[in-house]
Amino acid sequence: MPRGKGVPFLELITPHIELEQELMDAVKGVLRSGVFVGGRVLEQFESEFAEFCGAKYCVGVSSGTDALRFALIAAGIGRGDVVVTVPNTFVATIEAILQVGATPAFVDIDPQTFNMSVDALREYLQEQSGRSVKAIIPVHLYGQMCDMDPIMTLAQQYDLMVLEDACQAHGAEYFSAKSGRWLKAGSIGKAAAFSFYPGKNLGACGEAGAVTTNDPELAQRVRIIRDHGQNKKYHHLIEGYNGRLDALQAAILRIKLPHLKQWNEKRRNVAEIYNELLKGAQVKTPIEPRWSQGIYHLYVVRLERRDEVQKYLAQRDIQTGLHYPVPLHLQEAYLNMGYHEGDFPVTEQLAREILSLPMYPQLERAQQTAVADALQQFYDAEVVGRRVLQ
């Protein structure tokens, strides 16, 4: 690692420099067309992203949060309905549930994958038999998919809609024993929500999102919802939202999409190098189940003395992240849901131990070695009773 350069947590400049001419040409094309909302460029991106996900339809919207909200509305989820998800996720997951008038309910996560625990979901559904549970939102966190076969089986058993929160899972795959093949995130549930926030594996240059689905009626309802509830100009079927994906962002995403598979492969390679470098260290590296091919939107480890470690790394110009240090059921905004500390012990323990290490396709081995060496130095100092925090 060059002296003084450090290791950034995320690096968004290089890929845009590499694609600068293509991106500028795409933006110029939109500017010269005069079509900034809707139009051919948006339709092309929607078709291409649907194909990438193995889904029949894609509807571009203004953010991942809108994708979650609009998909729930389009599926008929609303006031009085209970939607089951996890407390270990970004706040947008339950924002969308609450903003459609539904009630979120949490189940704990699996300590190995950090995703929804199938056992906890099964237990909850058995206990809540007869209540108005209408949907499940499994969150494919950090770029690794949930165990979808048993989740879909439970959904069928209890007649529940499944909305995949795939906002961190562009291109992640799941081996379905039921179908005998690998399936992409966004192609399994009734619908799926994606975010194209700039830091995502497929990121726009601003806010953007999409809903994927194999249901033509749901896709059409999302199109109407995103556009003020109108099916044609000034003909409003329902009260909708202004949640459209603009043509400039669609054009940028079209240029980036063909590179996504390679970028994801590079992330997997970065993860493999981390796994190798961190062997024997006092760090628990991510576990990838046999049925998962993750795309490592984040590389999240578990370790002791997390806050001290983060400070130690920062002092060595190594940036890290916390995803997420306060579970949703303990957030001040949601204390009225009635949950308390201790209700979801796995989530709460992880929140104290997880640390996101630098992760992006262009991360160099020398930079990863610097991260691994710094982690080892911290714990070596602990062993001999010295604190090395200066």
Task: Note down, in words, how this protein is organized.
The chain is α/β, with parallel strands linked by helices and 390 residues long. The protein folds into 2 domains: 13-255, Type I PLP-dependent aspartate aminotransferase-like (Major domain) (Aspartate Aminotransferase, domain 2); 259-383, Aspartate Aminotransferase, domain 1 (Alpha-Beta Complex). Helix content is 39%, strand content 15%. It contains 12 helices and 15 strands. The chain has helices at 13-18, 20-33, 40-53, 64-74, 92-99, 118-127, 148-158, 216-226, 247-277, 306-314, 345-353, 365-383, and strands at residues 57-61, 82-85, 103-106, 133-136, 161-165, 173-176, 181-184, 191-195, 209-213, 230-232, 235-236, 283-284, 292-293, 299-303, 354-357. Strands 1-9-8-5-4-2-3 form a 7-stranded mixed β-sheet, sandwiched between helices. Strands 7-6-13 form a 3-stranded antiparallel β-sheet, with no helix packed on it. α5 links the parallel β2 (82-85) and β3. α2 runs antiparallel to α9 (247-277). The radius of gyration is 21 Å and the shape is globular. The model has no long low-confidence stretch (mean pLDDT 95).
